[in-house]
Amino acid sequence: MKAPKVINTYCPKCNAKTPHTVSIYRKGKESSLRRGARHHEWELHGYGGQKFPEQKRKAKTTTKQLLKLKCRQCGYTLDRLGVRLRKLELA
Ligand SMILES: [Zn+2]
Question: From ligand 1's centre to the CA of 80, what distance in Å?
């Protein structure tokens, strides 16, 4: 699906309908020194193997992708949850 580069929508900070710049949300790199990552690494350490079942066969072939909308007047950013899609691109 193609999403427009600019969407006119409600901004809660301006309390009005304003033009928003659209970008696609992408997950950032996970830090290996975070609390959960260190704990997970420690759980896998030593004798005993994997601590929870690994998901091998996924039922879903598509993902829900987020649109990040940034207000052009105040800079407030809001996320808009999309429908399930194979591919999302900006038109
Ligand atoms: Zn705004």
Answer: 15
Question: Where are the alpha helices (H) located in 1-91, listed in sequence order?
Answer: 35-44
Domain containing residue 11: 1-27+62-86
Residue 18: phi and psi, rounded to 5, are -135, 160
Instruction: Label the pairing between strands 2-3 and 89-90.
Output: parallel
Three-state DSSP at 64 gives strand
Q: Structural domain tally of the chain? A: 1
Q: Per residue in 58-86, pLDDT tens? A: 899 999 999 999 999 999 999 998 889 89
Residue that has been written with the tokens 């290996």 in this structure: 32
Question: Hey, is 58 helix, strand or coil?
Answer: coil
CA of 38 to the centre of ligand 1 (A): 39
- Tell me the CA–centroid distance for residue 67 and ligand 1, in Å: 16
Question: pTM of this prediction?
Answer: 0.72
